[in-house]
Amino acid sequence: MSKEYDIYASLPPFDVHNHHRKPTAQQQEYLSWELIEASTSGNHDQLIKAIQHRADLDCRYKGCTPLYYASKNGFTMLVRSLLSYGAHLETRNSKGRTALMIACSRGHIDTVHVLLHNGAKVNCTDHSGATPRHLALRNGHSAVVHLLDTQARMPITRTNAIDLRLKQLTK
Asked: Repeat ANK: residue ranges (predicted)?
């Protein structure tokens, strides 16, 4: 038997109706590592397995959450999953940056779109006073800047999101 099998076998399965069964501190530490590893490598199956065993969605490694790492790497599907299971959207790292800020600075437009659609704050600032727009501009991501400017003028609804994506694809 592998170590992973033993650990997961000892964990309570995910059950929305049973909030009493939670992982022990040692199990939670392992699950946190699984989430961080999945969010940095893009492993969706690993992420879902950890979530289903009640991993702390807002755990931290080097000051950053799984949502931050998934956004940093442009793993849009992981970002969607983390948000749908309840990860906090506006959690900040030690520099005061959010998942939206790192996605903008890296130019991951699909990830930025998902974060905005889920209510990420466009006008937030980090400890140095930079906004998501500043970070996108600084790194030459004009499409992200355009999306942020559009969001500032017109909040993204499902219909608006589809229209914006179609315009981007037809350019």
From this structure: 62-94, 95-127
Q: Note down the domain range covering 72.
A: 3-170
Digit-coded pLDDT (tens) for 78-123? 999 999 999 999 999 999 999 999 999 999 999 999 999 999 999 8
Yes or no: say if 133 and 145 are a contact pair by the CB < 8 Å rule: yes
- Tell me the one-letter amino acid at 91: T
**CATH code for the domain of 117:** 1.25.40.20
* Contact of 37 with 46, CB cutoff 8 Å: yes
pLDDT higher than threshold 60 for residue 16: no
Determine the Cα–Cα distance for residues 86 and 73; give it in Å rounded to an integer: 20
- What sign does the CA torsion over 35, 67, 143, 126 have? negative
Overall domain count for the chain: 1
For residues 55 and 104, give the distance between their C-alpha atoms in angstroms, rounded to a whole number. 27
Give the separation between CA 8 and CA 50, rounded to whole angstroms: 9
